[in-house]
Design goal:
The complex is a heterodimer of chains A (215) and B (776). Helix content of chain A is 29%, strand content 44%. Chain A has four helices and nine strands, in the order βααββββββαββα. In chain A, strands 2-3-4-5-6-7-1-8-9 form a nine-stranded antiparallel β-sheet, with helices on one face. The two termini of chain A are 22 Å apart. Chain B is of the alpha+beta class. Helices cover 29% and strands 26% of the residues of chain B. Chain B has 19 helices and 33 strands. In chain B, a hairpin with a 5-residue loop joins strand 4 and strand 5. The two termini of chain B are 55 Å apart. Classes of the chains: A alpha+beta (215), B alpha+beta (776). At the A-B interface, strand 7 and helix 3 of A face strand 8 of B.
Amino acid sequence: MKANIEKIFDVEHPVDRVWNFLSNPEKVVTCVPGASITEKLDEQNYKGQVSMKFGPVGVKYNGQITIEKLDEPSHHMTIIGKGMDAKGSGSAGMTMNGILKVKEPQLTEVSYIMEVSVSGKLAQFGSRLIVDVSNQLVKQFVEKFKQELDNEALADGVSDTTEETVSTGGDTATATQAAAPTDTSTPAKDNSLSVFTILAAIIRGFFARLFGRKS
Amino acid sequence: MGHSMKRKEDARFVAGKGNYTDDVKLPGMLYMDIVRSPFAYAKILNINAENALKIPGVLAVVTGKDLEKYNLHWMPTLMSDTQMVLPTDTVLYQAQEVAAVIATSRYAARDGKEAVEVEYEPMQALIDPFKALNQDAPVLRTDKEGKTGNHIWHWEVGDKEETEKVFANAEVVVKEQMHIPRIHVASIETCGCVADYNKVENHLTMYMTTQAPHAIRTVIALVAGHVGLTEEKVRVISPDIGGGFGGKVPVYPGYVIAIAASFLIGKPVKWIEDRSENLQADSFARDYHITAEMASTKDGKILGTRFKILADHGYTDAAANPSKFPTGLFSIGTGSYDYNTAYMEADAVYTNKPPGGVAYRCSFRVTEAVHAVERITDRLALELGKDPAELRFQNFIKKEQFPWKSPTGWEYDSGDYEAGLKKAMEVIGYDELRKEQAEKRAKGEFMGIGISTFTEIVGAGPSKDFDILGIKMFDSAEIRVHPTGKAIARFGTKSQGQGHETTYAQIIAEELGIPAENIQVEEGDTDTAPYGLGTYASRSTPTAGAAAAMAARKLRDKAKKIAAYLLEVSEDDLEWEPGKFFVKGAPEKSKTIQEIVFAAYTNHPQGMEAGFEATHYYDPPNLTFPSGAYICVVDIDNETAQITIRRFVAIDDCGHIINPMIVQGQVHGGLTQGMAPAMYEELIYDEEGNILNGTFMDYLVPTAVESPNWETGHTVTPSPHHPIGAKGVGESPTVGAPPAIANAIVDALSHLGVTHIDIPITPPKIWNILKEKGVV
């Protein structure tokens, strides 16, 4: 099955810092819950792992990430990921197109479209959860990403906080994230998805739909 | 006969004392679980069982390569196609069996299954049956030598040229594209077995969920005869069954793997599917893409029909039709109407979906046929601006026209379609409802009335046309009356909830005068029951029920001889009333059946065989043609698109009724299973071949909560050729209900220009239509 995930959000950082971060898979991966890079094959290709739980279905994909396009002048990137479940219970693919736009010198708009396709056990049993879980993953990614950017800025001696707008579909939510002084040289140790956070989000999503509100 | 006797079998069911396959527990029994493919189409590069075998209790992991050594990796389907037991290199649908884990407990088997690592190389699945027919589509069945495409077979019936002529010259022609979606029988009990091979005796006892134990025994002997399991060495026992509906006719790979495992290990092996395996891998039903056309004069006289079908069979043709009928009895689709020109053709195709095409509570594709003809009849009424009831009355075959030869070659035995529809219209108050509908329409409210007046075809079947793998479709009864006048009767059929233990006893009671409660009915053990082809397609009453009557009549003839001997009169002087023979004109001189039976063991006439038993194999001279007139009233909320069945009247004509209470129960269940595909059920696959609703969380099965108050009734037109004039009823409501519901919903929206909606008709479908038409 296929799912499209679109996201637009602003970060209060100059475009160059955002671009440098996003174009480095080894940095990006620290923001993806459950993901890690196991091997750098060359500048464009990396081997990695992603572990996730979708309701009753746990998957652990071993795969490859390829940077298909990295165009700095237009700030446009295309990343392709493909993975097979370690135990042969399925496969997943992802194509992400991301664009950065300068809104103000200290304000950058990040927008991307991610096409995700899954086959196998996850599609069989977890399909009803994929969109909910993905949205939650994206939310966690964005939070972590901003935090890491703030940390970098702190390390560079620039102090700032971020106030931004996150939107998925028709929904608009505002989150305030205070910069936390963490050591950027070591990535967060436990970055797997919190089961309870996801469960809570799914339950919220269910009730929101039940009462006709778009979650 | 005609009495609402409570079901004899229910005592054990309501007390929780039924004996199902999963209740069978044998000493030393092992458990099997099956590793299934996550991909719809993939090469198997490697199967690594190392970690699985480390789990305590896991004894073996069986793969296709293991079975290949015994030439057991492929097996025939009931349609003479071939099916993998376990694959050696390629999987062709999601959830296909890949390997089997044998363990000492069910839990260890499941853990072992999770630990087997399979390396796949996925390939682009072929899901759309139309694309599968393209020249450049990859050939799925590369195992078949010389196969250059995915086309399976072509079938046609009727007069093509004459039909083309009629359509070319007709004043009115209507046409619709329909899809009868892929659905699942979803019985409460999933499939399973206990294979118990005894090495010393070289004997296999197979407890299994099968609707056709004798046929299965023959198939096992054909498949495994070369390893020594010849037919006398195989005993198939089909214990209580929790719903079959056609899904328990095929031979699934799991059964064969369990037999192979038991054969190799020498211990009993149990295999029971879980719910998702049942839903994802067992035979589906329907999945016909139909182009339906009807031609008429401008005043509404039907002149002809034409149907073109594309049948999606998944990766193999594993339907369970009689051999000569690849589309089953679809040719009944000319309907209840008097015209003599029709042409039907069908093509079947392979795709990367589970195999099947079983007759889900339907006599071999009759549901598809009836949906097509009843929908297109309503379409014609809409085109002509005629009331659909009036159009039907105008075109019905009249009761004096029976036996009636249909344009596709059937001889309808009897029927009175006018009487049925008249009764249904009276019960529901048709004219009032039409008035109400007009008023509601003026106010912008949606209300629809749908009719279905179907002809069924059941009781397969006469040996000249009907066989499965060459075995003729007769069925059998054996009655043995004990000295005290109580009896045991055994049959080649197998009840899955139909109530055979009661109805067969009632038939024998009627013919022989022994009270039904003194007749023990037994089915499902191939070592004791006479040979028969099992229970499906509403064939039990038409075949085995008839056999029961015939065997009882043989006994009555014998009873007459004994009575004449005991009363010292000539046989011609005797008269029968249920329960006794008496001398004409001297009713006080009589012998009861119990006295006669006792004499058969204690004082039988010289020259006569002792004992009191008879067997009959009944080969029906024709099929039976039950019919029905169903009317459904729906209301559709013009804001939420919620569909509510306000009323549903079902008038069935199944000939003489044996037990009205059982018939009513069958009709209630059947109507609910007819509502299911009309409004809820469909197996949905994405373009990769992933099933998107492979659990009961997502596959919607209606329950009592969703069911409306079914209003049932009868007309009675006996079958002229059946010994007791009965016709069979189990599947009629499942066949007749979907078009009645679909016609009602389309009728509610027809003034907006809606002419057809594919089932299942769900609120989102309606909402999209209302949106498109600018209503919401």
